[in-house]
Amino acid sequence: xxxxxxPQRVVRAIGExxxxxxxxxxQEVLYGPLIERVRQSPLHSDVLGxxxxxxxxxxxxxxxxxxxxxxVAGGSQxxxxxxxxxxxxxxxxxxxxxxxxxxLSELSGEERRIGAVHSLGADxxxxxxxxxxxxxLRGRHGRGLKLALAGNLVMAAAGFLGGHLAxxxxxxxxx
Length: 175
Prior knowledge:
Four Helix Bundle (Hemerythrin (Met), subunit A); about 0% strand; 6 helices; mainly alpha
């Protein structure tokens, strides 16, 4: 039998973790009333034949990655554009997170636990990018850059877990 890769072992450990089950339950209690409202909204539709959440993530992460690319490659002339992209990403993160939370509410077992860690990572990235935006608006672009880079790293890990759910486990399908 071939050995599993490190990412596969991480996903398996998350999916089997009793600690992560407690995290999933805490998220359910914390977000429960809001999730019920979102489940009745267009953010939780089957009009595409799949979840809306994966498509929305492209907008959020695209803005955030674009902001960081401008930060790193564009120099001080690009600070305004990077700030605008960071802000657009934070705004786009709201419907993205709501759509994802509604999807998460329908999962169980291993998928629910993997989704809980994905959600925690995405929430952390939103927090980091909100801090980045505030720092940028206060003229502390260097701090904003550091927070944005941290946010992108966290979002990459969270995105890996979300991609695993949607592509490997098929949780985004609306059959």
